[in-house]
Amino acid sequence: MSRLEGQNAVVTGATSGIGRAVSLALAREGARLLLVGRDRERLEDAARTAATGSPGIETLQSDLGIQSEVEGLAQRVEEKLGGVDILAFCAGVYSRGRIDTAPLTDLDSHLQVNLRAPARLTQDLLPSLIARQGQVVFMNSSVGSTPEVGFYSASKHALKAFTDTLRAEVNPSGVRVLSVFPGRTATPMQESIFAAEGRSYDPSRLLQPEDVAEMVLAALCLPRTAEVTDLHIRPMQKS
Could you say which of 94, 151, 152, 162 is catalytic? Predict the structure, then answer.
């Protein structure tokens, strides 16, 4: 029997990188999936790939960077699934820039995608998560604990504060909350970061999205006597 059989899972940012890898890992363990992403074609491709393991795949095209699209998203989720056991936030935005020169619109976009959208969707789906004693996963970043990339770091610091507070509130109701802090991972986003830094990109030296997904899956499948709260994972080869 698959470990997540009978459970409904929602994954944002499901079309590439860590989000896609998490989706495929959940499908392999028998979860019914709802994949959320901006690009319809890539959503359908991810759904076709995941369908080999999952008993059911649904998709929702939505841009978490647009607040009007986040409003009502939970209702669409409930209509498709009827309830949520696992909610995994893997969507995110990243841009570089000094605080003294970066436009505040950059801060707005970071906060919208990296904090406000997850907060809103979590808030709206909490009744379902509590009723089903579900689990919530927030993909944070190792950079979020450093002052290297101003507004991005600020949004990830805020996400950790939100996640820690949420955990304290919902643990008594049987809901587990996991924060994941991956190091440099071989994703399209990371390739663009290396380019911006003027560095040669060698994905073989980085974490693989599947590495992160396997650790997330292990945490989700733990017996209910335990909870992983903060998961830090790094590339074996340090650069």
Answer: 152
In a domain, 45, yes or no: yes
Domain-embedded: residue 187: yes
pLDDT tens track for 35-79: 999 999 999 999 999 887 667 899 999 999 999 999 999 999 999
What residues make up the domain containing 181?
Answer: 8-233
- Listed in sequence order, the residues at least 6 apart from 205 whose beta carbon sits closer than 8 Å to its beta carbon are 235, 237, 239
Describe the crossing of helices 40-50 and 17-28 by its angle, rounded to 10 degrees: 30
Is 2 a domain residue? no
Secondary structure percentages of the chain, helix, strand, coil, to 5: 50, 15, 35
Q: What tens digit of pLDDT does each residue of 155-211 get?
A: 999 999 999 999 999 999 999 999 999 998 888 888 887 887 788 888 888 899 999
Assign residue 200 the CATH number of its domain: 3.40.50.720
Annotated catalytic residue 152 = yes
Would strands 86-89 and 135-139 be described as parallel, antiparallel, or unpaired? parallel
148: part of which helix (H) or strand (E)? Answer: none
Question: Is 63 among the domain residues?
Answer: yes
For 15, counting Cβ atoms within 10 Å of its Cβ (0-12 exposed, 13-18 middle, 19+ buried), the class is buried
How many domains does the chain contain in total?
A: 1
Encoded amino acid at 119, one letter: A
The two beta strands, 8-12 and 32-37, are: parallel
| Strand duo 135-139 + 230-233: pairing | unpaired
User: What is the C-alpha to C-alpha distance for residues 138 and 118, in angstroms, rounded to an integer?
Assistant: 8
CA–CA distances in Å: residue 77 to residues 11, 31, 34: 11, 15, 8
